[in-house]
Amino acid sequence: MKLSKVALVGILAASSLAIYAAPSQAAVVGTTTSKADIIFKEDDGTTPTNPIDPTNPGDDVTPTDPDAPTPTTGALRLDYVSNIHFGEQTISGSDTTYKAKYDEVVLKSDGSTKYVPTFAQVTDNRGTNAGWKLQVSNDQFKAGSSELTGAVLTLKDAELNSANAAKPMNNQNVVLSGNSTMQDVVNAPVDSGMGVWTNAFGNTVGADANAENASVTLKVPGETKKDKDAKYVATLTWTLTDTPD
Fold first, then answer.
1. pLDDT tens digits, residue range 165-222?
2. Environment class of 139 (CB within 10 Å of its CB; exposed 0-12, middle 13-18, buried 19+)
3. Distance between CA atoms of 146 and 140, rounded to whole angstroms?
4. What's the CA gap between 66 and 77, in Å, rounded?
5. pTM for the complete prediction?
6. CA 180 → CA 115, 140, 153, 222, distances in Å?
7. 3-class DSSP state of 238
8. Each residue of 58-97: b (16+ CB within 10 Å) or e?
9. Confidence category of residue 82, pLDDT binned at 50, 70, 90
10. What is the mean pLDDT of the chain?
11. Theoretical Cys-Cys bridge with 215: which of 88, 137, 202, 203, CB 3.0 to 4.6 Å?
12. How many Cα atoms occupy the beta-carbon half-sphere of 44 within 13 Å?
């Protein structure tokens, strides 16, 4: 009886070891490989990039200005630049600085209206990482043969923004005296500036339909002749090149 019990215990112990033993490594009987691929086609630039909110680049917007400038085309393109409106102002015989209105845009996400600073937007979908430069010049404000002699347009407090990872880029305050001299706005060196970028002048603190943007100003000498009820207009020429500094 004792021998049988011992034998039975031994059998049970062996069975437990068989059940709980770590599984043996599977034998490799063969290997093969597969591939994943992708082909990049050039962005021909025929479909413009939608303007985005320069203060929150995750939101697409529709500017409400009916005379918004025409975007350029190509894989490196200028999607949008603001027209600058100073509204109606009272004639003054003293040197006076006027502040611009904010841009009115509609958020595509919910259709609400928002006011944002004067801004420019550039898309670089070339894939070359070659960098780019944005410049601007202007002629003087004119109404027919009448010119605002000595008027100076200033765009300052520039802020770059993008949904992309930030890369070192240089943006400038811009002072335009109406002499058609090109001024640097943004310089995107090699290996920067890819994707969609906005450059806004000022911020949206207190921005509404009646607010004025202190970062975009027009200084007019008091001695300059000003025709009443005349609309003085200056043309700003924005130039985007693929030759950064």
1. 767 788 889 999 999 999 999 999 999 999 999 999 998 877 888 999 999 999 999 9
2. middle
3. 10
4. 21
5. 0.86
6. 29, 8, 12, 23
7. strand
8. ebebebeeeeebebbebebbbbbbbebebeeeeeeeeeee
9. very high
10. 90
11. 202
12. 2
| Alpha-carbon span 69 to 83, nearest angstrom | 7
**Any idea how long the chain is?**
245
- Kindly report the backbone phi and psi dihedral angles of residue 234, in degrees, each rounded to the nearest multiple of 5, phi listed first: -120, 145
Tokens of 1: 């009886």
The residue extents of the domains of the chain are 52-241
More confident residue, 9 or 144: 144
Is residue 101 within 8 Å of residue 213, measured between CB atoms? yes
Q: Which residues are CB-contacts of 22 (< 8 A; sequence separation ≥ 6)? A: none
Nearest to 80 by CA among 114, 116, 109: 116
Q: Please give the backbone phi and psi of residue 87, each rounded to the nearest 5 degrees, phi first.
A: 70, -165
Q: Using CA atoms, how far apart are residues 158 and 178, in angstroms rounded to an integer?
A: 20
Please give the structure tokens belonging to residue 123: 């898309």
Q: Are residues 217 and 153 in contact, defined by beta-carbon separation less than 8 angstroms? A: yes
Burial 173-209 (b: 16+ CB within 10 A, else e): ebebebeeeeeebbbbbeebbbebbbbbbbbbeebee
CA 70 – CA 80 distance, rounded (Å)? 7
The full DSSP string for 59-110 is EEEEE--TTPPPPP-SSEEEEEE-----------SS-EEEEEEPEEEEETTT
